[in-house]
Amino acid sequence: MIIAVDGPSASGKGSVSRRIAAQLGLPYLDTGLLYRAVARDMLDQGLPLDDEDAAVRAAKSLDLDGLDDPRLRERRMGEAASRVAASPAVREALLELQRDFAHRPGGAVLDGRDIGTVVCPGADVKLYITASAEERAHRRYLELRDRGEHVDEDEIYQDILKRDHRDQERSAAPLRKADDAHLLDTTNLDIEQAFKAALGLINAAR
Ligand code: C5P
């Protein structure tokens, strides 16, 4: 069973997806980490983020074992990831890896921006998880602060708006809800409530 979860940053999709995967005994891939890893490799080599050939090379040499690097969660990596993710060639270079993961025997849970629309259009269940920009900024602020980053909540809010805009307006695989995705708005839900709501939608759909 393939479960595709999409939505904007800090919507709760990562926490919900991780818990769904654990509950159903399925492997889980946070595809945002792939774009973050490409960005990290570029920054580490001092390459400009718009050097598409270098970004494609970084994408092609990615391996899933390196995705537990805590640096990938830093605020600047999210911002840099959304820049490299605007390149159709970079997206294409990461497609096979994601599809191979999705088609593991037994299935998988993948979350990102284009899982239900591009990576796994035939997924068994699709969720589109969102929340207000203010609530998402607040969550991201708390998360980064807990991780020891010095951040200003209003700056995070501006980041979120900028990232939403870039992800939704790009021509390659823009963030949008697949027509057959179930919408889950987590603005007024805590993580436990969001998880239960998602599980209910999945159980009803399969
Ligand atoms: O989800 P996360 O914030 O880690 O993603 C970082 C960036 O990677 C997003 O802003 C988006 O531009 C890009 N991304 C994407 N497609 C995905 C996952 C992430 O374009 N499937």
From TrEMBL:
It comes from Dichotomicrobium thermohalophilum. Its main location: cytoplasm. HAMAP family: Cytidyl_kinase_type1. It is found in: Cytoplasm. Belongs to the cytidylate kinase family. Type 1 subfamily. This is Cytidylate kinase. The gene is cmk. CDD domains: CMPK (cd02020). One of its GO terms (molecular function) is dCMP kinase activity. InterPro entries: Cytidylate_kin, Cytidylate_kinase_dom, P-loop_NTPase. Gene3D superfamilies: P-loop containing nucleotide triphosphate hydrolases. Pfam families: Cytidylate_kin. GO terms for biological process: pyrimidine nucleotide metabolic process. Its EC number is 2.7.4.25. GO terms for cellular component: cytoplasm. It catalyses: CMP + ATP = CDP + ADP; dCMP + ATP = dCDP + ADP. Keywords: ATP-binding, Cytoplasm, Kinase, Nucleotide-binding, Transferase. Residues 3-202 form the Cytidylate kinase domain. ATP binds at residues 7-15.
